[in-house]
Queue: 2 jobs
Job 1
Amino acid sequence: MITLNNVSKVYSVKSGSITAVDDVNLEVQKGEIFGIIGYSGAGKSSLIRLLNGLETPTSGTIEVAGNRIGEIKGSKLRKARQEISMIFQHFNLLWSRTVADNIAFPLEIAGIPASERKERVKELVRLVGLEGRESAYPSQLSGGQKQRVGIARALANNPKVLLCDEATSALDPQTTDSILELLVDINQRLGLTIVLITHEMHVIRKICHKVAVMEDGKIVEEGEVLNVFRKPKAPITKRFVQQVTEPEETKETIAHLIDSYPSGRIVQLTFVGDSTEQPVVTSLIKNYDVKVNILQGKISQTQSGAYGALFLYIDGEETEMDRALQFLSDHQVEVEVVAHA
Ligand SMILES: Nc1ncnc2c1ncn2[C@@H]1O[C@H](COP(=O)(O)OP(=O)(O)OP(=O)(O)O)[C@@H](O)[C@H]1O
């Protein structure tokens, strides 16, 4: 659905030039929820603006829903933009128009007759759960409701791709979750391809199938969300993954517990997908001559299954501990010894 080949975007500024997007290659499949995560200044906004033709690439090619973005102009670009819709952090609603008229706006531009527009607006209002609020003005709505209007408006002309620019960053955690659930619902119901940019790993964990991590204009890591969670490679990815699994200090604090034991090891186990459902710790205790003490554990859900981290204290003969840890690795559990007495 989306293909980027060697795409760069260089801005000319007084002091020289800034490479905001640096030789990016990317492939997004139809029906996928694809997240791009990075800190401020990584180049996410520039990248997303390239996808809907608001910026043209300095080099490279971009294809979205069969359109060669960056090469088409005028009416062709306007037509392509109907297939590539966008929602924004600050909603970008028309404040003097009601909910219904905001949603109808792109239909008016597309020249849809009034009676058809009315029907379509009704459908969209239902889809995003805004029944009863059709005549309200944006200033009378909560943040979550405003974003629902933004989503309905973005879906009005049946786009093939929905781009989300930090769509939940201005919302509180509970409202964020309800908007993310709405995006998943739309993705499943309409088969819509969604590309979102964010600086919050929570958003990636909650709804994305795939993730790309951006730093200094480059994609430094990419893959299925669960795989990236299981084995983050780049240091920046590790920091993002820690945002949702354990605070950075947890490992250190737990490692210190080893001081209270005369022997043994503290290990961190990382479970992904099916391995979270297997009783591996029970098997470990039953089949190996080791003592096990559970120190801390946490399981989070992602779109493609569960992800969990468990800290254990384990003690016994060195060779028996090695065998026990090998057993865990053989059952698709990542094992890291964080402290050794
Ligand atoms: N129109 C522009 N002209 C000049 N420089 C720009 C322009 N747009 C972005 N930049 C620069 O390009 C780099 C990447 O910015 P971009 O906004 O794409 O990053 P971002 O990851 O979206 O960050 P943020 O979340 O803060 O917007 C930054 O150094 C920024 O200052």
Job 2
Amino acid sequence: MTALLSVRDMSRSFGGVAAVQSVDLDVDAGTIRAVIGPNGAGKTTLLDLVTGFTKPDSGSVEFKGDQLVGLSPRELPSRGLMRTFQSARLVPSLTVRENVMLGAYRFTRARFGSDAFRLARSRREEKELTVRADELIDFLDMRHFADTLAPALPAGAQRLVEVARGLAGAPDLLLLDEPAAGLDDSETRELADVLRAVRTGGISMVLIEHNMALVLAVSDRITVMDAGRVIAEGVPKDVRGDPAVRKAYLGVDQ
Ligand SMILES: Nc1ncnc2c1ncn2[C@@H]1O[C@H](COP(=O)(O)OP(=O)(O)OP(=O)(O)O)[C@@H](O)[C@H]1O
């Protein structure tokens, strides 16, 4: 089976720091791939390399058979790739619904055509986007927040809005950078249910996460990084028992 996403021999240094060194990463269609590792392991840099926010020193990224290296981040949503960020990047002057709608703008075509035509189309598209955003907001059980300005939300809820915005782009692959940061235990369990439902809906995911309960609950395969390198890869049961992982990630020597 060909992987949906295939990262090969990816490297990037910043000055003397080898943030990512010869990393391979595969994500099969319909699966969740977790990337874990201690602070500074290179997880976010890897995501930045895949999504064009950082240029690699060397390496390739194949997604649905196309090379992504050299593309700008803006080009990726229309190819079916969406991401979230480590700290929520919601637009503070917009409501939850409007923030979610932003994720779906790749579906709008109103910028083409004559003015009158454009206006009519833009109204219709705005309505479609609203319906789409509300479906996702309902899916995340956040209808009571739909008209709230994003900064007024609790931190945990803001993370979920980021996830909803990513889903609004109807991606084939959603890259999630620490979606459980700031969530309490019950919110994290809800997030696990959401991610499983998203996978059932056919969307694959890369999950960068420190919360091991979430990682073990939802991941099909786990990649473990330390100091820029992959030190282990496999199904959760095997990775959890790997001595190198326990030493590097959990700080235990047995
Ligand atoms: N733009 C940059 N300039 C200089 N150094 C950088 C830059 N981005 C990342 N680094 C360094 O690269 C290394 C990997 O950082 P990265 O943020 O990818 O790790 P991480 O695994 O995501 O960590 P965390 O779990 O804390 O988010 C770190 O040593 C970091 O300081």
